[in-house]
């Protein structure tokens, strides 16, 4: 169990009496601690893409000069919406299929690259704006989520490396 007591007598009694309920509550707490940040980061990415697709001349601002030299506004918006929605779908899939953290890891890595590129673009365009620094914080959050996803990939042996090694060792013995 995550904690010995919730400090709520009736809930503690119910969890003690019903191990299935205790496991479900534990699972929900763990999900909330690890994946909700990923959900919000994907929503921010999607909203940013929608803004780019609907606003019109966002990239005409001087702070977008570096980003504009690499990608157009419509392309950037399409990429952001596609990646954000794919990320949300991947998180749903990972929730439905418990042994699929590799999907989360790929989404977190793509999110990190997205936010890191925005950060670099804003910081290289001139004096550091709060916008660039905020995207930097989001990139660090994605990096943290990536490390948690990578740990889940390792623990669950999602790539099958441990299983293949164990099988090879068993055959060699």
UniProtKB/TrEMBL annotation:
Membrane-traversing stretches: 39-56, 76-93, 105-125
Keywords: Membrane, Transmembrane, Transmembrane helix
Protein's name in the database: Uncharacterized protein
Species of origin: Enterovirga rhinocerotis
């Amino acid at each position: 169990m995550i904690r010995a007591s919730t400090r709520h007598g009736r809930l503690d009694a119910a969890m003690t009496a019903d191990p299935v309920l205790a496991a479900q509550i534990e699972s929900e707490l763990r999900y909330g601690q690890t994946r909700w940040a990923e959900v919000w980061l994907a929503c921010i990415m999607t909203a940013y893409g929608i803004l780019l697709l609907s606003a019109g001349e966002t990239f005409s601002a001087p702070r977008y000069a570096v980003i504009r030299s690499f990608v157009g506004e419509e392309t950037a918006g399409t990429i952001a919406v596609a990646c954000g929605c794919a990320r949300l779908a991947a998180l749903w899939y990972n929730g439905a299929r418990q042994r699929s953290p590799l999907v989360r890891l790929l989404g977190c890595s793509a999110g990190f690259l997205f936010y890191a590129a925005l950060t670099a673009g804003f910081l290289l365009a001139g004096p550091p704006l709060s916008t660039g620094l905020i995207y930097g914080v989001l990139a660090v959050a994605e990096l943290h989520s990536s490390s948690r996803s990578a740990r889940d990939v390792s623990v669950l042996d999602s790539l099958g490396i441990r299983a293949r090694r164990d099988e090879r060792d068993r055959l060699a013995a």
